[in-house]
Amino acid sequence: MKLSRKLFILTLIMTALTCLIFAFTGCKTASLARKLDMPQNVEVEIWHRPAGTTYMAIWDGVEGATGYEVSVEGDTFEVKDAKADITEYVTAGIYSYVYVTALGDGVKTADSNVNKAICRIENVSNVLVYKESEDKTHYSVASFAPEKQMLAGRIVIPDYHNGLPVTAIEESAFFDQTAGNPNPATGANCNNVTSSFRFPKYLDTIGAYAFAYCTIVKDFKLPDTVTTIGEGAFFNCMRLTTANIKNVNVIEAATFYECTALSTITLSDNIEKIGVDAFKNTALLNQSGSSDVVLNDTILLEVTDKEITEYTVSDSIKYISSSAFANCAKLVNVTIPDTVKIVGDYTFSGCAMLETITVPSATTKIPAFTFASCEALKNVTLPNGITSIGQQAFYNCPMLTEITLPETLTQLELGAFAQSGLISVNIPASVEVVGQQAFFACPELTQVTLNNGTKEIALGAFARCAKLEQIEIPGSVETIGQEAFSSCGALHTVKLNEGLKTIGVMAFAYATKLNNLVIPEGVETIGYGVLGLAESVQYVIIPKSVKTIDAEAFILVGTTSTKFLYAGTYDDLANVSYVNSDGTPATAIKDVTFYIYSETMPTESGLYWHFVDGVPTSW
Predict the structure, then answer these.
(1) Model's pTM, two decimal places?
(2) What is the pLDDT of residues 46-89, one digit of tens each?
(3) 3-state DSSP call for residue 37?
(4) CATH architecture, range 423-619
(5) What fold is seen in the domain 124-283?
């Protein structure tokens, strides 16, 4: 018993010691707070409201924080969320220090390290005119107040206007177009009162000529959010020295034209387009070799020796810009490394003796007019990866008789192969729209293959292809556009498939050898003059799905023996609407007498038809 009592007492003592140790070690450890992460990206947004300007400090929220301590120029207060209105703590016109600390509950967490921002506090310029977007999600700066002198000094554009972000500077917003005849040399009629800009942090778009003739601005400190800059946006900003457009992939024509002091620029790593004269007469350009004008040692802007017959693009070149080889009339061969991307319009236009070109695999788009009027061009190799062929890219290439369009192609733009020498063409299923006049007036084109996937044949796509004899329109095509096959004088056979909904104005007009036209079930609209002057047509079958027919849809079609065969009943025909060319209702259709379909010999009076061995025949 005594031994057991001693053991019991000893156990109590050990337990007490353990608790004491825990109190000074384990318990102390439990009370230590885990340090929170430091608030990141502390900055100040400028909000503009009807009541005035508000300055909002914002930062990235910290996980586990129960609030934040904010200190501005010695004044300290706490907020719950990762933002604070600091308007009453700052003074316009000075730089202010904003400190932010994340706070915990005092047991599980502790104060974080302090992060700070140095912010220039500025009043929003009161001369700006804003425009709200149609979807009411953002504002743009549209222009400035009429009193030009109110632009003097620095223009401060807020991050928010009326609670919505300011994301765009519209076309000609700060270009004083009313002055007339700007003279940047003297400053006359230029916006030569605005010295600098403060841009909104969410700015993504700058419109065409937005800052044209801002002749005394030396630096446009654009945020990295800018992705789109319009044509001539900084035209004749003669004192501009630096530009950062690292997230702008498309540089439009004349963007920095006549920015004579521009000597430093930060460009995107994935340029898609450099427009004509984008950097003309800037200090960026240097001469490298006898015939190269290059930008940043990687962009070939111009080959100045127009007498060259052969050319090899240097391995150091990454991009070939607009008009780089334009009008090198004696150039026969050019070698381009696969790593080079063609990113400019008119790149080889007017190279009248150029015979062969292998487009480098880095190129994904053939820009507008790239090979226009290359009259000797007969061999073109397009790499897989090409997604579009631009406006008139191969216009007037009479020796180009064949070309393989890659399966990656999705766009054939206006006049892409107009007046070329193509004999046949296979348009991949990936091309949803055969663009306007894409193959207009190709005099030797005799075979066109359209694959299931194409949805629209646009205005004049194959018009005036005088040797095209037959065409099958796959069921994926929903629209045949205006004059799509107009003046195809040899066209005698057209096969249309179900899926088609609209046949446009004069789609097959002047197809003087067309035998017949069977319009498939599903077509709802037939436009004006769809078969105008197609004098050889023997019959036209109109499905009962048709809801609207232009009153002159079949004017001057065929002869008096041409039959117009309706696939429905007289009751169905009564529900068809006729319209005039201006869209107003018409009472009847001109120059047409309809035959009504009947499988059996009709007993009532009228004109009827049926099929005999697949041939439409009158009862």
Answers:
(1) 0.83
(2) 999 888 899 999 999 999 999 999 999 889 999 999 999 999 99
(3) coil
(4) Alpha-Beta Horseshoe (3.80)
(5) 3.80.10
